[in-house]
Amino acid sequence: MSQELQRIFMGEQDPLFLAEILFRTCIIYFYTLALMRWIGGRSIAQLSIVEFLLVIAIGSAVGDSLFYPDVPLIPAMLAILLVVLANKLVDLAIMQSSRLTRFFEGSPQVVVIEGRVDRHKIRSRGIGEHELYMKLRDKGVDDLSQVLLAVLETNGTVSVLVRSRSEVPAKGLYQPPALPEAELAGAAGITGSASR
Question: pTM of the prediction?
Answer without folding.
Answer: 0.55
